[in-house]
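Bug report (template v2)

What were you trying to do?
Predict the complex of my protein with NAI.

What happened?
Run completed; filing so the output is reviewed.

Input:
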Amino acid sequence: MHKTTPKVHQKLLLTGAAGGLGKALRERLKDNCSVLRLSDVQPFGDALAGEEIVLADLADAAAVNRMVEGVDAIIHLGGVSVEGPFGPILQANILGIYNLYEAARRNGVKRVVFASSNHVTGFYRQSETINADHPARPDGMYGLSKAFGEDLSRFYFDRYGIETACVRIGSSFPEPKDRRMLATWLSFDDLHRLITACLTTPVLGHTIVFGMSRNAVTWWDNSRAHHVGYVPQDSSDVFRDAVYARTPAPDLSDPAVQFQGGGFVKAGPFE
Ligand code: NAI
Ligand code: 15L
């Protein structure tokens, strides 16, 4: 039976719209609202039917305020998405998320879905299963910036009642690229299902949820987030044989194989 997407918001804002996940969600999110406002720092063409485009650098408070004006909820994907030098991470991810929540507070936006990352907990071992109550163990400046975003959003919930789902996305790509991603993979359709659940669950509060498909091998336990109502329907398991065939056996002494964050745990230093 086809289940339709509940349309509980009139106008949604999607930041990071020019990026990999932004492109994957653009069409899918039109089912969730009447008007989809798309934003990025870089131009990405013209608005289509049912869309608005507002370009903004997340580090620019005034531009971020204009971007947020008039929307009912936000899906925040924009920012630096990999490990790298601290300067751009500071501007886009740390100053950027502060600007976003200040704009949300001023404009009365009450729900945000924040693209956090598995790199908030990248220094847990691949032999461990963790849940949302485990302390953060970021694996670099990028993971630290996402941990800051999680803490900042908790403050804006406690102080101002803005509900947030911090979605610790694993690896969201068309297919898992390597053996690690067999555990961390999140299909685009499951990402959309998860965002839809975060937008529509009656009481979200401040919630941390791991963004993963229904993979047999997993390091993450989403039992603290049953109230979100996310039911993944895809699985990396169908790619397992092909991934094993094209990748070498893991070197168990390699930190990228020992820790959940994979290669991020040994990236840098950059400055
Ligand atoms: P991406 O790098 O393809 O897209 C990020 C977008 O943010 C880009 O279009 C970029 O122009 C924009 N951006 C960067 N700096 C900005 C600034 N200062 N102001 C405004 N926009 C800015 O990344 P992707 O893969 O689409 O990921 C989207 C989000 O999900 C990111 O926040 C990333 O950290 C998070 N995420 C993604 C995962 C994945 O597997 N794709 C895994 C974990 C987290
Ligand atoms: C992330 O946070 C990145 O945004 C993405 O590009 C992948 O590298 C992913 O984590 C991952 O851990 O596979």
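What did the reviewer find?
DSSP finds eight helices and nine strands in the chain. Residues 16, 18-22, 40-42, 57-59, 77-81, 91-92, 96, 115, 117, 169, 171-172 surround NAI (ligand 1) (CB under 6 Å).
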